[in-house]
Design goal:
By secondary structure, this protein is mainly beta. The protein has one domain: Electron Transport, Fmn-binding Protein, Chain A (Pnp Oxidase, Chain A), CATH 2.30.110.10. Helix content is 13%, strand content 37%. It has three helices and twelve strands.
């Protein structure tokens, strides 16, 4: 038997309980950028997942409360920056509400295809939005990867990844391995 979201056998957990559970679940940090024609937007996300390797598809969620969401959902393409600990400033910039995240022109540029991207980010994936799905007060966005940053095809050692856990930024490195 299939149940819709509105049909529940048991009461749902509260929003505070749900947030508390995920506060203890660390997430890799990414920044999503897009421009649907009215100027660039960016937001910080810990919801990025790889959904398929062949074809290369990733997904992330965006909140209806984010000022960047309408532009991201209205864009044909996005750039997903997978951040290292060295790029925590980009994560903080795009997590700050009420500011012009693209005021400092030295931090960003445009790809040849027109999408805005942060030049400091070594790992990024440009992709085409192929599907969206409403999910409560958010939308799940599926993206087909079209292009990867040149860094991914080189021999450079990857930097320590940036992780968000319990409302704090963390770096994962050899010392954190168990």
């Amino acid at each position: 038997m299939s149940l819709s979201i509105t049909q529940r056998l048991e009461p749902a957990i509260t929003a505070d309980e749900f947030k508390a559970a995920f506060r203890n679940h660390p997430g890799g940090v990414a920044v999503i950028t897009a421009d649907a024609g009215n100027g660039p937007v960016g937001l910080t996300a810990t919801s990025v997942i790889s959904a398929s390797a062949e074809p290369a598809i990733l997904a992330f969620s965006v909140s209806e409360f984010s000022s960047s969401t309408p532009t991201i959902l209205g864009a044909d393409t996005v750039v997903v920056h997978l951040l290292s600990a060295e790029q925590v400033d980009i994560a903080k910039l795009c997590a700050t509400s009420g500011i012009d995240r693209f005021a400092d022109r030295s931090l960003w540029s445009r790809l040849e295809t027109g999408e805005p991207y942060f030049v400091q980010a070594q790992v990024w994936i440009r992709g085409r939005i192929i599907n969206t799905m409403a999910a409560g007060g958010s939308s799940i966005v599926a993206v087909e990867a079209l292009q990867a940053s040149p860094f991914l095809s080189g021999d450079a050692a990857p930097a320590d990844p940036l992780v968000y856990h319990n409302r704090r930024w963390h770096a994962l490195g050899d010392a954190s391995q168990i």
